[in-house]
Amino acid sequence: MSINVTKAYLPPLEQYVGYLEGIWERGWLTNNGPLVQQLEADLSAELDGSQVQFMSNGTIALQVAIKALEMTGEIITTPFSYVATTTAILWEGCEPVFVDIEEQTFCIDATKIEAAITPRTTGILATHVYGYPCDVLAIEEIAKRHNLKVIYDGAHAFGVRVHGRSLLSYGDISTCSFHATKLFHTTEGGAIIMNDKELARKVWLYKSFGHVGDEYFTLGINGKNSEFHAAMGLCNLPRVPGFIAARHKLVVLYRQELAGLPLQFPESQEASLEYNYAYFPVVFETEKQMHQVKDALAAQDINTRRYFFPSLNKLPYHTGADCPVSEDISRRVLSLPFYQELHLRDIQRIGIIIRSNLD
Ligand SMILES: *Cc1c(COP(=O)(O)O)cnc(C)c1O
Protein backbone atom coordinates (compact mmCIF):
# COMPACT_ATOMS: atom_id res chain seq x y z
CA MET A 1 0.00 0.00 0.00
CA SER A 2 1.31 3.42 -0.87
CA ILE A 3 2.25 5.91 1.84
CA ASN A 4 1.70 9.56 1.11
CA VAL A 5 3.54 12.49 2.57
CA THR A 6 0.35 13.73 4.25
CA LYS A 7 -3.08 12.27 4.78
CA ALA A 8 -6.08 14.45 5.51
CA TYR A 9 -7.95 13.62 8.71
CA LEU A 10 -11.62 12.81 8.17
CA PRO A 11 -13.96 13.07 11.17
CA PRO A 12 -16.64 10.42 11.82
CA LEU A 13 -19.10 10.74 8.93
CA GLU A 14 -22.15 10.89 11.26
CA GLN A 15 -20.76 13.99 12.91
CA TYR A 16 -20.36 15.78 9.58
CA VAL A 17 -23.81 14.60 8.47
CA GLY A 18 -25.22 16.12 11.67
CA TYR A 19 -23.98 19.53 10.51
CA LEU A 20 -25.29 18.86 6.97
CA GLU A 21 -28.79 18.27 8.37
CA GLY A 22 -28.67 21.72 9.94
CA ILE A 23 -27.56 23.26 6.65
CA TRP A 24 -30.46 21.50 4.84
CA GLU A 25 -32.97 22.72 7.43
CA ARG A 26 -31.80 26.32 7.22
CA GLY A 27 -31.13 26.42 3.48
CA TRP A 28 -28.25 28.81 4.30
CA LEU A 29 -25.18 27.60 2.38
CA THR A 30 -22.74 30.50 2.42
CA ASN A 31 -22.35 34.27 3.09
CA ASN A 32 -21.57 34.39 6.81
CA GLY A 33 -23.93 31.63 7.90
CA PRO A 34 -24.25 30.34 11.47
CA LEU A 35 -21.57 27.64 11.12
CA VAL A 36 -19.06 30.17 9.76
CA GLN A 37 -19.91 32.48 12.66
CA GLN A 38 -19.54 29.60 15.12
CA LEU A 39 -16.18 28.56 13.68
CA GLU A 40 -14.89 32.15 13.79
CA ALA A 41 -15.97 32.46 17.44
CA ASP A 42 -14.33 29.14 18.38
CA LEU A 43 -11.15 30.08 16.54
CA SER A 44 -11.10 33.47 18.23
CA ALA A 45 -11.22 31.74 21.65
CA GLU A 46 -8.51 29.32 20.55
CA LEU A 47 -6.34 32.20 19.28
CA ASP A 48 -6.49 34.31 22.44
CA GLY A 49 -9.41 36.53 21.54
CA SER A 50 -8.06 37.78 18.24
CA GLN A 51 -10.39 38.91 15.45
CA VAL A 52 -10.67 35.95 13.08
CA GLN A 53 -12.08 35.96 9.55
CA PHE A 54 -12.64 32.59 7.91
CA MET A 55 -11.33 32.79 4.33
CA SER A 56 -11.60 30.73 1.15
CA ASN A 57 -7.94 29.67 1.44
CA GLY A 58 -4.56 30.69 2.81
CA THR A 59 -3.40 32.30 -0.42
CA ILE A 60 -6.33 34.72 -0.74
CA ALA A 61 -5.84 35.40 2.99
CA LEU A 62 -2.29 36.59 2.26
CA GLN A 63 -3.41 38.73 -0.66
CA VAL A 64 -6.24 40.36 1.29
CA ALA A 65 -3.83 40.94 4.20
CA ILE A 66 -1.39 42.80 1.94
CA LYS A 67 -4.28 44.93 0.56
CA ALA A 68 -5.81 45.65 3.95
CA LEU A 69 -2.46 46.80 5.40
CA GLU A 70 -1.92 48.97 2.30
CA MET A 71 1.49 47.51 1.61
CA THR A 72 3.01 48.83 -1.63
CA GLY A 73 6.50 48.96 -3.16
CA GLU A 74 8.89 46.53 -1.50
CA ILE A 75 7.96 43.82 0.99
CA ILE A 76 10.74 42.05 2.86
CA THR A 77 10.10 38.32 2.83
CA THR A 78 11.57 34.87 3.20
CA PRO A 79 12.87 32.72 0.34
CA PHE A 80 12.12 29.54 2.31
CA SER A 81 8.35 29.02 2.21
CA TYR A 82 5.61 27.68 0.02
CA VAL A 83 5.40 29.53 -3.29
CA ALA A 84 2.13 31.25 -2.30
CA THR A 85 4.03 33.52 0.12
CA THR A 86 5.95 35.07 -2.78
CA THR A 87 3.21 34.96 -5.41
CA ALA A 88 0.80 36.78 -3.06
CA ILE A 89 3.29 39.68 -2.99
CA LEU A 90 3.74 39.66 -6.77
CA TRP A 91 -0.02 39.28 -7.38
CA GLU A 92 -0.60 42.41 -5.28
CA GLY A 93 1.82 44.33 -7.51
CA CYS A 94 4.55 44.53 -4.87
CA GLU A 95 8.22 43.57 -5.04
CA PRO A 96 9.45 40.72 -2.82
CA VAL A 97 12.85 41.52 -1.27
CA PHE A 98 14.35 38.28 0.00
CA VAL A 99 16.28 38.11 3.26
CA ASP A 100 18.11 34.86 3.98
CA ILE A 101 17.07 32.40 6.70
CA GLU A 102 18.46 31.12 10.00
CA GLU A 103 20.42 27.86 9.88
CA GLN A 104 18.41 26.29 12.72
CA THR A 105 14.77 27.34 12.40
CA PHE A 106 14.80 27.97 8.61
CA CYS A 107 12.78 31.14 9.36
CA ILE A 108 13.80 34.60 8.12
CA ASP A 109 16.98 35.84 9.82
CA ALA A 110 15.78 38.90 11.74
CA THR A 111 19.35 40.17 12.14
CA LYS A 112 19.56 40.64 8.36
CA ILE A 113 16.26 42.49 7.88
CA GLU A 114 17.39 46.06 8.58
CA ALA A 115 20.08 45.96 5.88
CA ALA A 116 17.37 45.19 3.31
CA ILE A 117 15.09 48.13 4.20
CA THR A 118 14.91 50.94 1.63
CA PRO A 119 12.69 54.04 1.35
CA ARG A 120 10.28 51.88 -0.70
CA THR A 121 9.86 49.18 1.98
CA THR A 122 6.37 49.12 3.49
CA GLY A 123 6.22 45.77 5.23
CA ILE A 124 7.55 42.37 6.23
CA LEU A 125 5.93 39.06 5.28
CA ALA A 126 7.58 36.14 7.07
CA THR A 127 6.68 32.46 7.44
CA HIS A 128 6.77 30.38 10.63
CA VAL A 129 8.45 27.50 8.82
CA TYR A 130 7.12 24.04 9.80
CA GLY A 131 5.49 25.80 12.77
CA TYR A 132 8.80 27.05 14.23
CA PRO A 133 8.39 30.67 15.26
CA CYS A 134 10.16 33.57 13.61
CA ASP A 135 11.88 35.87 16.09
CA VAL A 136 8.60 37.74 16.60
CA LEU A 137 9.94 40.11 19.27
CA ALA A 138 12.94 41.25 17.19
CA ILE A 139 10.76 41.66 14.11
CA GLU A 140 8.21 43.70 16.07
CA GLU A 141 10.97 46.04 17.22
CA ILE A 142 12.38 46.50 13.72
CA ALA A 143 8.91 47.13 12.33
CA LYS A 144 8.21 49.80 14.96
CA ARG A 145 11.53 51.52 14.36
CA HIS A 146 10.97 51.73 10.59
CA ASN A 147 7.19 52.13 10.58
CA LEU A 148 6.59 48.86 8.72
CA LYS A 149 3.57 46.55 8.79
CA VAL A 150 4.08 42.87 9.59
CA ILE A 151 2.26 39.84 8.20
CA TYR A 152 3.07 36.32 9.32
CA ASP A 153 2.25 33.46 7.01
CA GLY A 154 1.16 31.08 9.76
CA ALA A 155 0.01 28.30 7.43
CA HIS A 156 2.08 25.82 9.49
CA ALA A 157 1.57 27.43 12.87
CA PHE A 158 -1.88 26.33 14.03
CA GLY A 159 -1.72 25.27 17.68
CA VAL A 160 1.73 26.76 18.31
CA ARG A 161 2.18 29.02 21.34
CA VAL A 162 5.11 31.23 22.22
CA HIS A 163 5.73 33.66 25.12
CA GLY A 164 2.42 32.44 26.58
CA ARG A 165 0.17 33.21 23.61
CA SER A 166 -0.85 31.83 20.25
CA LEU A 167 1.83 32.35 17.60
CA LEU A 168 -1.01 33.38 15.26
CA SER A 169 -1.74 36.41 17.44
CA TYR A 170 1.52 38.17 16.45
CA GLY A 171 2.07 40.75 13.72
CA ASP A 172 -0.45 43.25 12.36
CA ILE A 173 -1.98 40.22 10.67
CA SER A 174 -1.28 36.50 10.78
CA THR A 175 -2.75 34.30 8.11
CA CYS A 176 -3.38 30.59 8.25
CA SER A 177 -4.24 27.89 5.74
CA PHE A 178 -6.83 25.25 6.54
CA HIS A 179 -6.10 23.20 3.43
CA ALA A 180 -6.70 19.45 3.67
CA THR A 181 -2.95 18.81 4.03
CA LYS A 182 -2.57 21.03 7.09
CA LEU A 183 -2.67 20.06 10.78
CA PHE A 184 -6.12 21.64 11.24
CA HIS A 185 -8.19 21.68 8.06
CA THR A 186 -11.57 22.68 6.66
CA THR A 187 -11.01 20.88 3.29
CA GLU A 188 -10.11 24.18 1.64
CA GLY A 189 -9.93 27.28 3.76
CA GLY A 190 -7.86 29.75 5.67
CA ALA A 191 -8.05 32.64 8.05
CA ILE A 192 -6.93 36.17 8.72
CA ILE A 193 -6.13 36.75 12.38
CA MET A 194 -5.66 40.25 13.81
CA ASN A 195 -6.26 42.27 16.93
CA ASP A 196 -7.58 45.53 15.51
CA LYS A 197 -11.37 45.85 15.04
CA GLU A 198 -11.09 48.58 12.36
CA LEU A 199 -8.71 46.39 10.39
CA ALA A 200 -11.09 43.45 10.77
CA ARG A 201 -13.87 45.52 9.20
CA LYS A 202 -11.59 46.41 6.29
CA VAL A 203 -10.66 42.75 5.79
CA TRP A 204 -14.33 41.82 5.86
CA LEU A 205 -15.08 44.35 3.10
CA TYR A 206 -12.16 43.20 0.96
CA LYS A 207 -13.21 39.56 1.20
CA SER A 208 -16.87 40.41 0.44
CA PHE A 209 -16.59 42.32 -2.87
CA GLY A 210 -16.11 45.65 -1.09
CA HIS A 211 -19.77 46.37 -0.53
CA VAL A 212 -22.47 46.03 2.10
CA GLY A 213 -25.87 45.73 0.45
CA ASP A 214 -26.20 48.62 -1.98
CA GLU A 215 -23.34 50.63 -0.52
CA TYR A 216 -20.02 50.26 -2.36
CA PHE A 217 -16.90 51.19 -0.39
CA THR A 218 -13.85 49.69 -2.04
CA LEU A 219 -12.42 47.27 -4.53
CA GLY A 220 -12.94 43.77 -3.22
CA ILE A 221 -12.65 40.09 -4.02
CA ASN A 222 -14.55 36.94 -3.07
CA GLY A 223 -12.55 35.52 -0.16
CA LYS A 224 -15.50 34.05 1.75
CA ASN A 225 -15.92 30.43 2.71
CA SER A 226 -19.01 28.23 3.03
CA GLU A 227 -21.07 26.47 5.68
CA PHE A 228 -19.82 23.11 4.37
CA HIS A 229 -16.19 24.07 4.99
CA ALA A 230 -17.03 25.57 8.38
CA ALA A 231 -18.74 22.27 9.32
CA MET A 232 -15.53 20.36 8.61
CA GLY A 233 -13.66 22.84 10.77
CA LEU A 234 -16.13 22.49 13.64
CA CYS A 235 -15.69 18.70 13.51
CA ASN A 236 -11.89 18.93 13.50
CA LEU A 237 -11.14 21.84 15.83
CA PRO A 238 -11.75 20.03 19.17
CA ARG A 239 -9.45 17.22 17.97
CA VAL A 240 -6.40 19.44 17.42
CA PRO A 241 -4.80 18.73 20.85
CA GLY A 242 -5.15 14.99 20.10
CA PHE A 243 -3.57 15.48 16.65
CA ILE A 244 -0.62 17.31 18.20
CA ALA A 245 -0.11 14.65 20.90
CA ALA A 246 -0.20 11.85 18.30
CA ARG A 247 2.26 13.68 16.07
CA HIS A 248 4.63 14.32 18.97
CA LYS A 249 4.79 10.55 19.56
CA LEU A 250 5.53 9.95 15.87
CA VAL A 251 8.36 12.49 15.93
CA VAL A 252 9.91 10.63 18.88
CA LEU A 253 9.67 7.35 16.95
CA TYR A 254 11.14 8.87 13.79
CA ARG A 255 14.02 10.42 15.74
CA GLN A 256 14.74 7.01 17.34
CA GLU A 257 14.74 5.26 13.96
CA LEU A 258 17.01 7.89 12.42
CA ALA A 259 19.34 8.26 15.41
CA GLY A 260 23.05 8.35 14.56
CA LEU A 261 22.52 9.15 10.87
CA PRO A 262 24.14 12.22 9.33
CA LEU A 263 20.88 14.17 9.11
CA GLN A 264 19.94 17.65 10.26
CA PHE A 265 16.54 18.60 11.65
CA PRO A 266 15.21 22.14 11.93
CA GLU A 267 14.77 23.20 15.53
CA SER A 268 14.04 26.19 17.71
CA GLN A 269 15.89 27.28 20.86
CA GLU A 270 12.88 29.33 22.00
CA ALA A 271 12.34 28.24 25.61
CA SER A 272 8.66 29.26 25.74
CA LEU A 273 7.73 27.32 22.58
CA GLU A 274 4.76 24.95 22.64
CA TYR A 275 5.20 23.24 19.30
CA ASN A 276 2.60 21.60 17.01
CA TYR A 277 4.72 18.94 15.21
CA ALA A 278 3.22 19.97 11.88
CA TYR A 279 5.82 18.35 9.59
CA PHE A 280 8.76 15.98 9.64
CA PRO A 281 11.49 17.41 7.39
CA VAL A 282 15.04 16.09 7.28
CA VAL A 283 18.09 17.73 5.72
CA PHE A 284 20.64 15.42 4.10
CA GLU A 285 24.36 16.13 3.87
CA THR A 286 24.18 16.36 0.08
CA GLU A 287 21.55 16.87 -2.61
CA LYS A 288 22.66 13.55 -4.10
CA GLN A 289 21.78 11.68 -0.90
CA MET A 290 18.41 13.44 -0.81
CA HIS A 291 17.66 12.24 -4.36
CA GLN A 292 18.88 8.70 -3.63
CA VAL A 293 16.59 8.44 -0.62
CA LYS A 294 13.65 10.10 -2.37
CA ASP A 295 13.96 7.69 -5.32
CA ALA A 296 14.46 4.62 -3.10
CA LEU A 297 11.35 5.51 -1.09
CA ALA A 298 9.36 6.20 -4.28
CA ALA A 299 10.35 2.74 -5.59
CA GLN A 300 8.52 1.32 -2.52
CA ASP A 301 5.51 3.56 -3.15
CA ILE A 302 6.44 5.91 -0.30
CA ASN A 303 5.99 9.52 -1.30
CA THR A 304 8.02 12.40 0.01
CA ARG A 305 8.08 16.05 -0.93
CA ARG A 306 10.79 18.62 -1.55
CA TYR A 307 9.16 21.04 0.84
CA PHE A 308 10.53 23.66 0.14
CA PHE A 309 12.28 23.64 -3.20
CA PRO A 310 13.22 25.79 -5.03
CA SER A 311 14.35 28.61 -2.82
CA LEU A 312 11.84 31.31 -3.80
CA ASN A 313 14.51 33.80 -4.92
CA LYS A 314 15.11 31.34 -7.79
CA LEU A 315 11.62 31.08 -9.27
CA PRO A 316 11.68 30.93 -13.07
CA TYR A 317 9.35 33.94 -13.32
CA HIS A 318 10.96 36.08 -10.65
CA THR A 319 14.56 36.19 -9.48
CA GLY A 320 15.70 37.87 -6.29
CA ALA A 321 19.03 38.49 -4.56
CA ASP A 322 21.14 35.47 -3.56
CA CYS A 323 20.19 33.72 -0.32
CA PRO A 324 22.94 31.12 0.17
CA VAL A 325 21.52 29.48 3.33
CA SER A 326 18.03 29.06 1.89
CA GLU A 327 19.33 27.84 -1.48
CA ASP A 328 21.59 25.30 0.22
CA ILE A 329 18.95 23.92 2.60
CA SER A 330 16.21 23.82 -0.03
CA ARG A 331 18.41 21.61 -2.23
CA ARG A 332 18.94 19.06 0.57
CA VAL A 333 15.65 19.03 2.47
CA LEU A 334 12.93 16.40 2.20
CA SER A 335 9.61 16.17 4.03
CA LEU A 336 8.97 12.57 5.08
CA PRO A 337 5.49 11.03 5.36
CA PHE A 338 3.81 12.48 8.43
CA TYR A 339 0.21 12.17 9.57
CA GLN A 340 -1.61 10.93 12.66
CA GLU A 341 -2.37 7.42 11.38
CA LEU A 342 1.20 6.63 10.31
CA HIS A 343 2.24 3.30 11.87
CA LEU A 344 5.40 2.44 13.73
CA ARG A 345 6.13 -0.24 11.09
CA ASP A 346 5.92 2.42 8.33
CA ILE A 347 8.41 4.60 10.19
CA GLN A 348 10.70 1.60 10.68
CA ARG A 349 10.53 0.78 6.95
CA ILE A 350 11.30 4.37 6.05
CA GLY A 351 14.20 4.38 8.53
CA ILE A 352 15.73 1.26 6.97
CA ILE A 353 15.45 2.66 3.44
CA ILE A 354 17.08 5.94 4.49
CA ARG A 355 19.86 4.13 6.36
CA SER A 356 20.75 2.01 3.32
CA ASN A 357 20.77 4.90 0.83
CA LEU A 358 23.15 7.38 2.40
CA ASP A 359 26.34 6.37 0.56
C1 LIG B 1 -0.34 25.79 2.38
C2 LIG B 1 0.42 27.06 2.43
C3 LIG B 1 -0.07 28.24 1.84
C4 LIG B 1 -1.27 28.28 0.96
O1 LIG B 1 -2.46 27.97 1.59
P1 LIG B 1 -3.73 27.50 0.70
O2 LIG B 1 -4.81 27.39 1.72
O3 LIG B 1 -3.38 26.19 0.08
O4 LIG B 1 -3.99 28.57 -0.30
C5 LIG B 1 0.65 29.42 2.02
N1 LIG B 1 1.81 29.44 2.71
C6 LIG B 1 2.33 28.32 3.27
C7 LIG B 1 3.60 28.42 4.04
C8 LIG B 1 1.66 27.09 3.13
O5 LIG B 1 2.21 25.99 3.64
From TrEMBL:
One of its GO terms (biological process) is polysaccharide biosynthetic process. The keyword Mitochondrion does not apply. InterPro entries: DegT/StrS_aminotransferase (IPR000653), PyrdxlP-dep_Trfase (IPR015424), PyrdxlP-dep_Trfase_major (IPR015421). The modification N6-(pyridoxal phosphate)lysine is found at residue 182. One of its GO terms (molecular function) is pyridoxal phosphate binding. Coiled coil: none annotated. Keywords: Aminotransferase, Pyridoxal phosphate, Transferase. Pfam families: DegT_DnrJ_EryC1 (PF01041). The active site is at residue 182. PANTHER family: PROTEIN RV3402C, TRANSAMINASE. Belongs to the DegT/DnrJ/EryC1 family. This is Aminotransferase DegT.
